[in-house]
Amino acid sequence: MNKKVIILCLSMCFCCGNLMAQDAQSRSSYIQAFNDYTSKGQIREGVESAIKAAPLYYKGNNYQEAFDLLRHVDQTISTSRISSDEAAALHYLVSKERLQMYIKMRRNEGARDQLNIMYNLANRSGNENVKNDFLYIKAIYHYTFGQNEKGDAVFKEMADKLTASKEYDKVEEVYKTLIANGRKSNNASMVDQSYSNYLAWKDSTNALKHADEIEALKKQIADNEATIADKDSSLSARSAVIVGICILAGALAAALVIGAIILMRYILLTRKQKNLIKLANDNNALKAKFISNISSQLEPTFQKLDKSIPEVQALLTFSDHIQTLSTLENSSDAVETEETPILPLCEELMNLIKNKVKPNVNLTVNAPKTAININKEYVSHIITHLLGNAAIYTPKGGNIWLDVKKRSPHTYQIMVSDTGCGIPEEKREDIFKPFLEIRDLTQGDGLGLPICKQMALKMNGDLNIDPQFTKGTRFVLELHV
Known about the structure:
Order of helices and strands: HHHHHHHHHHHEHEEHEEHEE
Largest sheet: 5 strands, mixed
Radius of gyration: 33 Å
Strand order of the largest sheet: 2-4-5-7-6
Number of helices: 14
Distance between the termini: 62 Å
Number of strands: 7
Strand content: 5-15%
Helix content: 55-70%
């Protein structure tokens, strides 16, 4: 037993020694890069290399060496021949690294001093990206030291600033970065608060985007009306010229006849365009009905075939899916809802795949003991389909979760997650679109997820993939009740 303990201790010492050696080698490489870059006058590249070396010092609690390195970097920046605003931006990066060290040491006073220095440097740099980064770092500082209200205020200031300039993608990226940093630092309160703020911001931003789209449409309508008015004015001017010529020529009656003919042609052309638009809409409706009718007419014939043949069964399933998808896309009726206890429903649906999963796959249900006003048929269909896919793609010893979470007083999210191979990012936008590729129907017709998507939309909700989940695949069914 003692020999095993000794061997274990020696192994741990050997591993730690290897890690420390790797850190020392990486640190030396970064410092060498700093010296090489600065000797060539590439100050920014040198500063970025030195900043990468600093964490490798204080990772092993060598804080003094890290502070000495950053002090040397500041001196190099001060003696370099770069503009004052660029120098301020580089000093800002160095102070930012010092702030990270004080935060790691939990020294609030030192962190606060660096924050004040960074504020002055950000303003001197004149760089909006640096100023926005300062707000972000300031928010992290407040969250780290438990000052959540101040952190929320700073973060809201930054989000409002970017939102006002309609840089919605940047705001969303900042929220996601903050959430990722909270997860990385195991700061659960920061993750929870950030995610709640993110959802609230996204709801308000969607309203702003809709307002922008409405304003854009109004502007387009106004432009079209102005164009029509210009054309009307041009037509009136031409008519006046014709009338004038006719008066000069003594042919007023002929001019009136010509004007009447032009007007009639304009009226007829307008009616023709309206009829063409109506005909196109009618044709689209007839196409959808035609596809549905074909499927319905073929079904009795398919039913007479041997269903034990995989190809026949595949045709029957394909026919049923086409009818379902066509009905969903062309129906304008509101779906009926009822108060449904969500936990028993989730447990019942999870039990359906117990005999379909691979060995040692863990099945977990997390749902509140409450009733939700939903369309039970649609929700059951969507969850059953998603769980069935998860059972297929989750390997031995994997995990499948079915979670239900309340995101706001009227919004619930039902999430189906697995630890399978995941879906490539380039294919995620197309999995909800039907008929994109020719498929072997015995391997699936590709209509399952498009049908689930249409059902979600019919319930005034949506179905998407969570891009933040990287352990496999997570589908999120969002319902507004």
